[in-house]
Amino acid sequence: MNHSSRFALLALVASLSACSVMEGDKIDYKSAGKAPTLEVPPDLTQLSRDNRYAVPGGAVTASGFRTSTASAPGQPAAVSSVGDVRIERAGNQRWLVVGRSPDQLWEPVRDFWQESGFLLTTDQRNLGIMETDWAENRAKLPQDIIRGALGKLVDSVYSTGELDRFRTRFERTPNGTEIYISHRGMVEVYTSVQKDNTVWQPRASDPELESEFLRRLMVKLGVSQEQSKALIATASPVQTPRAATVDGRPVVQIAEPFDRAWRRVGLALDRTGFTVEDRDRSAGTYFVRYVTPTTDRKEPSILSKILSFGRSKPNESPLKFRILIKSQGDSSTVSVLNEAGVPDTSADAQRIVQVIADDLK
Q1: Rounded to 5 degrees, what are φ and ψ at 25?
Q2: Which of 16, 39, 86, 218 could bridge 81 with an S-S bond, Cβ 3.0-4.6 Å?
Q3: Residue range of the domain that includes 201
Q4: Do both 169 and 282 map to the same domain?
Q5: pLDDT score at 70
Q6: Are 232 and 313 in the same domain?
Q7: Same-domain status, 157 and 234
Q8: Residue 228 and residue 248 in one domain
């Protein structure tokens, strides 16, 4: 079906269903792919060959990931638990702490995403990373008589104009596992006044979607619906990081100790389009590579737009950085180093710092 026919039919359906009600409080994802291998970022392919996965305590081998490692102590801002599952929160970021090993959790979490309507494009136990494909939340579609009558005919052209994907990251702790879920979104926009063509563009990550999937994962892990809702509503004081300049270097200043800053920056990197190649917690360093996250529509990412702004030609080569976290007492400073480990004061570093600061708010 060509664009003009598609939009004509959509317009007809929209006019017939003007009184419909959007079921915005429900989740019903339908994968945009037909196979579990839409794409594997080249960095993750390389990681599987390197067979390394860094966890709290420093870089270790994949086999080391399956054995206990040390983690720096620290008190979360807010903690509530049921059984061996608890939720921790800092600002708009939440994560689960579960008293089970990553090996015990891997299969249940994989099943959880598949039961939620997703395919997995990254499923690497040795890295502690899962990533879903792009999927559409069909619950956002109008639930009306017209759609019910036309059924699959309408579903073939009905679209929310939004796609979502989620990354799950496992971090081993001395007493179990921390589970982080980060969201990335795309939105379909018109490219002309005539509205006869569209492209997909990045949209902001949604902390509420992340929280809802954490809540549902708690239920998968044995927490009741009522208990999960009570836990996810647990509030905490919000520490607002800020971008600043120290000794000529762009930095993010966080009024939190190292262990909390380390966790929050890691989740921010997952959200904003970086691939974490390696982590050395003892040195406070994330080794990151920027890889454009694409659907089959080959869309640019938010970070690629930021880094290419003002340039005559986009940088086609992969961009490597080190994100350094240094702490003193209850405050931490996040800075950007180049691939060689030298402090980076470039415009790219300033933009990266701002992206991290904005996500941590």
Answers
A1: -95, 10
A2: 86
A3: 1-238
A4: no
A5: 36
A6: no
A7: yes
A8: no
Residue 51 predicted with pLDDT over 50: no
Tokens of 55: 């966890």
212 closest CA partner among 127, 129, 112: 112
State pLDDT tens for residues 199-217: 888 888 888 899 999 999 9
One domain, residues 213 and 245: no
Q: Which of 199, 214, 238 is the last residue of a domain?
A: 238
172 shares its domain with 74: yes
Contact 284, 326 (CB under 8 A): yes
Are the CB atoms for 78 and 236 separated by under 8 Å? yes
Say whether 326 sits in a helix, a strand or coil: strand
Q: Partners of 182 in the beta sheet?
A: 167
Helix (H, G, I), strand (E, B) or coil at 256: coil
Q: How far apart are CA 126 and CA 128, in angstroms?
A: 6
Mean pLDDT, range 33-62, rounded to an integer: 37
Does the structure show a pLDDT above 70 at 302? no
Structure tokens at 335: 């800075």
> DSSP string spanning 31-53?
ES-SSS-S---HHHHHHHHHTB-
Residues sharing a CB contact under 8 Å with residue 322, sequence separation 6 or more, in sequence order: 285, 286, 287, 288, 336, 337, 338, 339, 341
The owner of tokens 């921010």 is: 268
Task: Report the C-alpha gap between 187 and 307 in whole angstroms.
Answer: 20
Same domain, 201 and 162: yes
Task: For 253-270, write each residue's pLDDT tens digit.
Answer: 998 889 889 988 998 888
Return the CATH number at 298: 3.30.310.170
Overall number of domains in the chain: 2
pLDDT of residue 137: 87
Q: Cβ atoms within 10 A of the Cβ of 207, count?
A: 16
